[in-house]
Amino acid sequence: MKVLPFPSSVPALVLGFLLAPPVLADDVTVFAAASMANAMAEIETGFEAATEYDLVVSLAGSSVLARQIQQGAPADIFISANPGWMDVLEQDALLEPGSRIDLLTNRLVLIAADADTPAVRIGPDTDLAGLLGPGRLAMAMVDSVPAGLYGKAALERLGLWEGLAPQVAQADNVRAAMAFVATGAAPFGIVYASDAVASPDVTVVGTFAADLHPPIIYPAAKLASRDTPAKAAFMDYLRGAHARAAFERQGFMVIAE
């Protein structure tokens, strides 16, 4: 699998286009939310073994990827960590009509670096500020990245956001937020359950109730670009049993049949 991490800055984006390898007819290029990194690595192995096609994956925050697609980035398929950014591309007529599906769902969790951290029951009376002390709460960008949007919505619903906002350390994507915790830069963080599965360096200490935030949905769609057999084959593979098993091993729940 060729993994192409795209940075968010405009100069880096331009440089990324210049350095990106040419897209071949037997490649399928997938732009996928950063939280899917481990699952996509598993799926790459299975997909390439089952077909004659090569998989090229670019991982970043959904907002970054959507903007790159708007700028003309050469992608075949987009998998977003929330419907909002897929809606934007659909409104821009950048999706292949009728190809969009709701693929996955996820859960939002509170993580800590210390495996001995006591469990936290998350509710309106939870003293997260007290747990943080002088430390920071790691989150993905709360105004653009899906994990950050969901986390902020949950904290607002609990009435905790206003008090916690000054202590939030925002990262470009949810994996970067988890890295803040894993490296000890922040004592706690809010990430997806699938991210916590992927890292042995963090522990889940609490789970946010699903009704505290909008449903966490990962839609997938073909982009209205070139039409190749590889593109259709990968969308079929995403709905198959092998991909389902890979997603579930990584902490996702599969919606698509």
How is this structure best summarized?
The protein has eleven helices and twelve strands. It has helices at 10-19, 37-50, 62-70, 83-91, 128-132, 146-158, 161-164, 174-182, 193-198, 229-238, 241-249, and strands at 2-3, 27-33, 54-60, 77-79, 101-105, 108-112, 137-140, 168-171, 188-192, 203-207, 217-222, 253-254. The longest helix has 14 residues, at 37-50.
Structure description:
With 257 residues, the chain is an alpha/beta fold. It has two domains: 2-105 and 217-254, Periplasmic binding protein-like II (D-Maltodextrin-Binding Protein, domain 2); 108-212, Periplasmic binding protein-like II (D-Maltodextrin-Binding Protein, domain 2). It is built from eleven helices and twelve strands. It has a seven-stranded mixed β-sheet. A five-stranded mixed β-sheet has the order 8-7-9-6-10, sandwiched between helices. Strand 2 (27-33), helix 2 (37-50) and strand 3 (54-60) form a beta-alpha-beta unit. Helix 2 packs antiparallel against helix 11 (241-249). The longest helix has 14 residues, at 37-50. It is globular. The relative contact order is 0.21. Molybdate binds at residues 35, 62, 147, 174, 192.
